[in-house]
Amino acid sequence: FPSSVSQTLTEFELKWQHWHGECFNHLQCGTFSSSQHMESICKILLGDEDALLEKRDLMTTWYHYLVSHLLFTHPTVKPTELHSYAQVTGGTGPEPLDNILLAALEFDIHQVIKDIVSSNWWFVAHLSDLLDRCELFSSHNMDFGSNMREFLLLEYASGLFSHHSLWQLAVDYFDHCPKLGRAYLELHIERIPLTTEKKALKVLRICEQRQMSDQVRSICKIMAMKTLRHGRLGSALSWSIRAKDAAFATLISDRFLKDYCERGKFSDLDLIDNLGPAMLLSDHLMFLGKYREFHRLYSEQQFIDAANLLLSLMTASIAPCYFRLTLLLDALPLLEQKEVIFSTMQTYALMKCLEDPKVATRESADTEDSQKPQTLRLTISRSETPSILMASPWL
C-alpha cells in the first residue's frame, strides 16, 4: 500500500480488504495453479490456517507464529486482543520467557516484573526504569516509602556491590534513587573491604564527591590504623590528617619524634616538609613541623633564625616532655659557633630550660646521654661571657 502520514486506520482496513479480495480472486481463478509454491504463498498471504500450520515448523517459537498469523489475518489487531490470540495460537511453553510474554500481552506489569526478577535483575531494573518514565508505576508505592522502580534499582545495585569488580557501577544506580539511594550507599560503603590504598582512594573519592563526611573520616581512620600497624608512619600521618583526627595525628607525631630520638633522623621528609596548614590539627603535629623547619634552617646555615625557632620550641608548651632534652642538645652546635648566635636573654632562657625538673628526670633516666647535659651546662656558661660583652653598651 502507498504510505501516507494522514492515512487513517479505517482507510488502511479498506485498502487491505481490497488487496485481500484480489488475492482471493487470483486463488479461486487458478492464476497460480501451475506453480505449487506460488499457490502456497498466495494462501499464506490470505491467512489460510492450513497453509500457515503447514509451515509452522519453520517458526521456532509460538510468538513467531502469532506475529505471522496476525499479519495476514488481522493486521489491525488491538493490543488488548493480543492475549486471546496468543491462547488460540498455542501461546504456552516451558520457558520463563513464555510466561513473561503472556503476562505482558495481558498488560499485567507487576506479573511481568515478578517473573523477570527470578531470572534477570539487570533486565527488570532497567525495564522498571522505562516503565516509571512512562508513568506506569506512579500509583504503586512500597510500604517503606520507595516506589517500585526505586525498590528494584536498589536491589540490583545491592547485588552489584557484592561483586569485587562491579561495585563501582552500583554507585551510579544508587545516585538515581532519590529517596533511599544515599542511605543504601552509605550502608554499603562501610562494608567495602579496603584491601589496598588504591581501592581506599577510590572509595574515598566517591564519598568526597557526595559530601559523605562521616564515611570519609571512617575510611581515613581505618587506613591510618592499617598503615600504622605496618610501620608506615608517613602514610598513617597522611590518612590521619585527611580524617582530621587530632588524637591520632598526635599519636603518630609522637611516633615520628620518638623514632627521631632513637635514629637521629626523620623518615618521610617530603610529607613533613609540606604539612602546611595541616600542622594546626594538633600541637604535637605543629611541633613536628616546626622542629623539621629548625633542621632546614640549620642546614641552610641560617643560624640566628634557627636559634630563635629552637628557643621558641623550648619555651612553648607544645613540646613533648620527653623531647625537651633533645631540643637542648640541638643548641650545642649553635653555642659552639664562632659567631655569637644566642643573646644574653636567650642564653639565660637556655639555662632555665636545662634546669627544668622534667629535663632532669629525663637526664637521670638516660644513662647513655648522662654526660651531654653537663657538656651543655659548660657550653652555656662559656657562651654567657661573649653574650654579655656583645650586649654591653660600653663596647
Automatic annotation (TrEMBL):
InterPro entries: Nucleoporin_Nup85. It is found in: Nucleus, Nuclear pore complex. Keywords: Membrane, mRNA transport, Nuclear pore complex, Nucleus, Protein transport, Translocation, Transport. GO terms for cellular component: nuclear membrane; nuclear pore outer ring. GO terms for biological process: mRNA export from nucleus; positive regulation of DNA-templated transcription; protein import into nucleus. One of its GO terms (molecular function) is structural constituent of nuclear pore. Coiled coil: none annotated. Functions as a component of the nuclear pore complex (NPC). Component of the nuclear pore complex (NPC). Belongs to the nucleoporin Nup85 family. This is Nuclear pore complex protein Nup85. It comes from Leptobrachium leishanense (Leishan spiny toad). The gene is NUP85.
